Amino acid sequence: ILEDDHMHAHHQGQVTGTSGNPVSVTELKGPQTGIPDKKYVLSAETKTLRLASGEAIEAWTFNGQIPGPALEADEGDLVEVRLVNKNIASGVTLHWHGVDVPNGEDGVAGMTQDAVMPGESYTYRFVVNETGTHWYHSHQQSSIQVQKGLFGSFVIRPSNQQDSETMDATVMAHHWVTPGGREIAALGLADTFQRQKVKPGTPVRLRLVNAGNLTQTFTLNGVSYKVAAVDGYELNEPGTLTDSLLRIGGGGRYDVIFTMPKTPVTLTMISEPDPIGIVYSQDGQGEPDILQKGTVLDITAYGSPADTPFNPSTDFDRSFTVILDQTYFGTYNGEAGQQWVINGKAFPETPTLMVREGDIVKTTFVNRSFADHPMHLHGHHIQVLSRNGEPISGSPLVLDTLNIEPGESFEVAFLANNPGLWMDHCHNLDHAQKGMTMHVAYE
Ligand code: C2O
Ligand code: CU
């Protein structure tokens, strides 16, 4: 019962459709001609950086900074990014997390391209349609490279957005792990957010990105606020919150909006003793409130329902069940110990979900392990249908990274509209590296 007819075991590097023809992904590229609307160069290089804690770290960076440069584009833009590898010996790539690019631009080393080695460069070109808060990171040995700093934010603004009044800042939560295994918060706060005092009455949008492996709990103090978007997707009629805890799984994003009051607003992350950010008002200081309180926001019951393309009674073309679990045995990728498994298997023995272009695909995720698993599907967005058997009661949720807590189950749906060979993996990148990775392939 765990495996649908269209789940196939396969071995790395040998993907064939049911017809037996190899799937050619390298031809599925973005527009190769045309003048780009936005052009960036990202250079991967080692750099000694100093954390806020004072600690000097040997980081891997894009353009010498963590996070890398903040990329921005407008909806519909043709974006061109040249990746240059200066000296990262294991090679690098760029993956556009949350942006549904053509398969050949997806940046998965060993799958959609080869890693870009020192001295080499590679150019990505694609049109962006997924508005909102996204991010980019290397997808070569991701569990090591993202940890060491090869990531940055990628914000795509809607074409109808006029309002330039809004103070807009991105916060990337990340932890640096020392060679001794100690974790230090390494937070990328936009400089404006650190220094600028904001005029009371100004609309503020904080874009929270969890660029780490573990689920992080955030809250805002000193103001009432709304969660406007999750994974870049704007929620329908979000309600006002005062003390909710926002649990964001690895790879996930929440956009939080509020109107600047006369007193400071603090952003806290429960794992950290001090606020990770303070927005000061021009009208004087006041005391920042750093109380950690409240209950976890149930995102499946937040905001108001609206029409969606799919619902639990849609006639699905394919259905899959994906059981997330752990095992304690064996050696995997040269290391003994824990493996994270999908339907009892570790990658590359995990099943491949075979779809046809145009299929409406339902996937049921069940978490039988003791850890959170933020499952990230490349190249597509998934609509959440139900949690623990209950249809969601709040705003539609359209995600690229679905955090599944222990004991939870979710039904989700996606439209197979982006041919190629895609990753679907846990964005606790240590889990992905230790087995919790599978593929979605087009027949
Ligand atoms: Cu954000 Cu496969 O990754
Ligand atoms: Cu996981």
Task: Explain this structure.
- With 443 residues, the chain is mainly β.
- The protein folds into three domains: 7-25 and 307-442, Sandwich (Immunoglobulin-like); 38-157, Immunoglobulin-like (Sandwich); 167-297, Immunoglobulin-like, CATH 2.60.40.
- 3% of the residues lie in helices and 42% in strands.
- The chain has three helices and 36 strands.
- The strands form eight sheets. Strands 23, 26, 28, 30, 31, 32 and 34 form a seven-stranded mixed sheet that branches. It has a six-stranded mixed sheet with strand order 1-27-36-35-29-33.
- The longest helix is centred in the middle third of the chain and has 5 residues, at 191-195.
- The model is unreliable at 10-23 (pLDDT under 50).
- It binds CU-O-CU linkage (C2O) and copper (II) ion.
- Copper (II) ion is lined by residues 340, 371, 373, 426, 428, 431, 436.
Attribute tags:
single chain; about 450 residues; mainly beta; Immunoglobulin-like; 7-stranded mixed sheet; 6-stranded mixed sheet; 3 helices; 36 strands; about 5% helix; binds CU-O-CU linkage; binds copper (II) ion; transmembrane helix; membrane; transmembrane; oxidoreductase
Instruction: Tell me what portion of residues adopts beta-strand conformation.
Output: 35-45%
Q: How many strands appear in the DSSP assignment?
A: 36
| Regions with little confidence, pLDDT below 50 for 5+ residues | 10-23
Form type: globular
Instruction: Kindly provide the radius of gyration, computed on alpha-carbon positions and rounded to a whole number of angstroms.
Output: 21 Å
Q: How far apart lie the N and C ends?
A: 22 Å
Overall structural domain count? 3
Task: Report the top-level CATH class of the largest domain.
Answer: Mainly Beta
CATH topology of the largest domain: Immunoglobulin-like
Task: Quickly give the structural class.
Answer: mainly beta
- Report the sheet with the most strands, covering strand number, pairing sense and barrel closure: 7 strands, mixed
Q: Architecture of the largest domain, according to CATH?
A: Sandwich
Helical residue percent band = under 10%
The total of helices stands at 3
Q: Which ions and ligands are bound to the chains?
A: CU-O-CU linkage, copper (II) ion
Mean pLDDT: 89
The CATH superfamily of the largest domain is Cupredoxins -  blue copper proteins
Organism: Paenibacillus lactis
Keywords: Copper, Membrane, Metal-binding, Oxidoreductase, Transmembrane, Transmembrane helix
Protein name: FtsP/CotA-like multicopper oxidase with cupredoxin domain
